[in-house]
Amino acid sequence: MRSVLLVGLLCCCVALMAQGFAPTPPVAKPIEARVPWYTVKPDLSNVSNRKMLPTLTPAQRSALTRYGFVARPTAEEQLFYVYENNAYKKIGSFVTTDSVLHTYHIFYDFSLRNLEKTRLVPAVRELSARMLKANLTALAEKRTPAVREALRKNVVFFAVPLTLLGTRPNIPADLRPLLEGEISRIMAHKERDYCITGAKIDYSQFVPRGHYTREKVFEQYFRAMMWYGLTPMPLEKEHVLDIPPTIEALIITEQLQQDSAARALWQQVYDPTVFYVGSADDLSFYDYGKLIPPVFGQGSLDRFADPAKLAQFYDAAKKELRGPGIENFTGDEGLQGKQFRFMGQRFIPDSRMLQELTYPKVGTSTKRRLFPMGLDVFAVLGNAHAAQLLDETYRQPQYANYLSQRKKLQDEIAALTPAEWMQNLYYGWMYCLLPLQQPRPEGYPAFMRNVAWQEKSLLTSLGSWTELRHDTILYAKQSVAECGEGGDEPPPVMGYVEPEVLVYERLGQLLRLNKAGLLQRHLLTSEDELAYDFDAFIELTDFLATASRKELRNEALSRDELRALEHYGGTLERLMLSIASLGQQGAIHNWWEIESKTDRSMALIADVHTSMPNVLEEGVGNAAEMWVVVPVQGKLYLTRGAIFTYYEFQHPARDRMTDEAWQGRVRKGAAPPMPGWVHRFLLGPGPQKPSAPEELEMEGYQTGC
Predict the structure, then answer these.
(1) Which of 157, 488, 637, 676 has the highest CB neighbour count under 10 A?
(2) DSSP label at 15?
(3) Helix (H) or strand (E) holding 631
(4) Average pLDDT over residues 171-193
(5) Residue 252 belongs to what H/E stretch?
(6) How far is Cα 110 from Cα 1, in angstroms, rounded to an integer?
């Protein structure tokens, strides 16, 4: 079964994937953990700086003394605002993995946007125009009826994305109603319906979301690429038209093979997105191209309509070509079979998990598990507490085959090597989350050695995973069931780093991979400002890993290290501003100067699974503040950090939520409740007003420096 999960890796046999993504990650040095055990007294009398603690409710104070930490929701729209407020109020900062992972989300998302706007949009437009012209030219020649009809459908197929990109293609008048029908269904976000290829597609997927709502060009690109990624030409006879859609796919394959310029454009779009997200698990022209010579030989396009040769092609394809790794349920049509897609959506391991843990793989016809949970992903990744919540709190084993399916997936994941985890940025991001799935052993600080901290780490994981799914919502295949220092500064306040060494070290590796991959593909030069930004972020992750190792050895951080933690909020804002400034007009010195109001807020939403008529939405809200009692050289200190808030709920598919709609609900206080299990440590109420401007920018501590 491992080979199925690794379909994205195994697809690397094609020429465009011949480039390696990264060398095998270095083996991490052993972690020495020898922090003495401690307890927090109920009256906080053994906490040195207890007077800085704000007024807490009895439940919040009880959690703080029992677990060594407590969190409260806030109105802050970015995690770094909490840290900048810390500097203003001289509160020691607790650097969370949440804040570092969120910063990587900003790097990933904004660098992908820049790539799309500057390179991919023009390439998709040119590729579509070239393929349309090829089919129009072929249509003008004398053809057999079957090939002529396939060419007509291909003309509409390529006219659709051109129209969505704002171009009015010149096609035969009798084909224009077919084109207009497709555009109408796309813009109306209809649910499942038959498309031009004769297969059913989910038109509700064409709602632009993720970062694709920010500009018109992104909306256009989203719809065009969704058309290419979603619209299948089934190998099996899952269609309602007389002409097999395989003939259309064979024609497209031949055209790409014979036109090196079109093929280069296709690869110009596909290769960078493989680097960011992964490879498609549906069949492409590379797959069909291997079978055309032995089955059809050379000659006119008309040979593709030869019934005997077409039957031979079906037999060869069934035997020799791979099936999809994410085998979606298609209602009355059953499970998705082998399909050709012009540029299919990408295999991602978590969508396979969600697919394999829903009906028809889990449950019965009378008791179907139609919706998974985010917890499923992390139970498969080895989080025993997530599994316990699923089994005991949410009673998921009530569905037939649930536990056996989950165990199968756990075994597949456990077999992955570090090199396989670093095959692309998507896998690499998830690899950074793996260390958070295990309880902390003896020698770690007491606040990390209880069930509440396991749930905090689970919240961190779910928040970061939600950002990953948000950033890749266009490409990822979805599961379906039905500054300088002064000379006389006062001593720095006490700060602390959440000592998750492997998270920081793996994130540093991922950043190096990200930069190297962009350089290798000539999407970045070593002199670009962005290259220096990657270096600065790598330097930060290296610093956090080093500080974590010192803390776990029960060693005090140096004055310079504490000073760096004191200025952590400004460091985060500078890093985030550097990447968010790509494509902006003029210099940006503060986060609130970003043009898009939506981008200023960390709140975002992503639908990750469809079971008509609803989808499963995963959301991140405003920041929560977290107070942590940390041990330093035999004394206890209060510190404050920032963590995610996380939401999961079902929502109508025809109205898949955008970031704008979700942020509106968050600002109005109309977000659904967070999962019940977070309330062991994340307890309201919390600060209801965001930090004032003077708390985020002051003399000697300019934000963005």
Answers:
(1) 157
(2) G
(3) strand 624-632
(4) 95
(5) helix 245-258
(6) 35
d(CA 105, CA 93): 21
What three-state secondary structure class fits 267? helix
Residue range 573-630, pLDDT digits in tens? 999 998 988 766 666 778 888 889 999 999 999 999 999 999 999 999 999 999 999 9
Query: Is the CB of residue 629 less than 8 Å from the CB of residue 68?
Result: yes
Of 397, 394, 434, 432, the C-alpha closest to 414 is 434
Give the separation between CA 354 and CA 350, rounded to whole angstroms. Answer: 6
Measured distance CA(422)–CA(516) in Å, rounded = 13
Find out whether the peptide bond into 145 is cis, omega within 30 degrees of 0. no
What percent of the chain has pLDDT above 90?
81
Over 80: is that where the pLDDT of 216 sits? Answer: yes
Chain centroid offset of residue 161 CA: 24
> In 3-state terms, the chain is what percent helix, strand and coil (to 5)?
55, 10, 35
Which residue in 560, 533, 529, 541 sits closest to 500, CA to CA?
541
User: Is-contact 512 542, C-beta < 8 A?
Assistant: no
Contacts of 455 by beta carbon, 8 Å cutoff, 6+ apart: 385, 677, 678, 680, 681
Phi/psi zone of residue 104: left (φ > 0), alpha (ψ -120 to 50 degrees), beta?
A: alpha
Q: What is the CA radius of gyration of the chain?
A: 27
pLDDT on residue 530:
86
3-state SS of 310-362 is HHHHHHHHHHHCCCCCCCCECHHHCECCCEECCCCCECCHHHHHHHHCCCCCC
Q: CB atoms < 10 A from the CB of 296, how many?
A: 18
From the number of C-beta atoms within 10 Å of its C-beta (0-12, 13-18, 19+), residue 52 rates as middle
DSSP 133-179: HHHHHHHTS---HHHHHHHHHHHHHHHHHHHHTT------GGGHHHH
Give per-residue pLDDT as tens, 83-140. Answer: 999 999 999 999 999 999 999 999 999 999 999 999 999 999 999 999 999 999 999 9
Would you say residue 3 has pLDDT above 50?
no
Per the CB < 8 A criterion, the answer to whether 445 and 630 are in contact is yes
What average pLDDT does this structure show over 159-179? 97
How many residues would you count in the chain? 705
**Nearest one of 225, 213, 362, 335 to 280, comparing CA atoms:** 225
Separation of alpha carbons 679 and 681, rounded Å:
5
> Is residue 420 a contact partner of residue 427, using CB atoms and an 8 Å limit?
yes
- Let me know: does 465 contact 504? Beta carbons within 8 Å: no
* DSSP helix/strand/coil, 250: helix
What whole-number distance in Å separates Cα of residue 432 and Cα of residue 188? Answer: 39
Residue 331 has pLDDT above 80, yes or no: no
Q: Coil, helix or strand for 257? A: helix
CA-CA-CA-CA torsion for 572, 577, 580, 583, nearest 10 degrees? Answer: -160
Question: Tokens at residue 212, please?
Answer: 């694709």
Neighbours of 100 (CB within 10 A): 25
Report residue 421 as tokens. 């985890």
What sections of 324-401 are H helices per DSSP? Answer: 349-356, 374-380, 384-388
- What digits encode the pLDDT tens for the residues 459-480? 999 999 999 999 999 998 888 7
> Cα–Cα distance between 471 and 462 in angstroms, integer?
14
Taken in order 620, 621, 623, 628, is the CA torsion positive or negative? negative
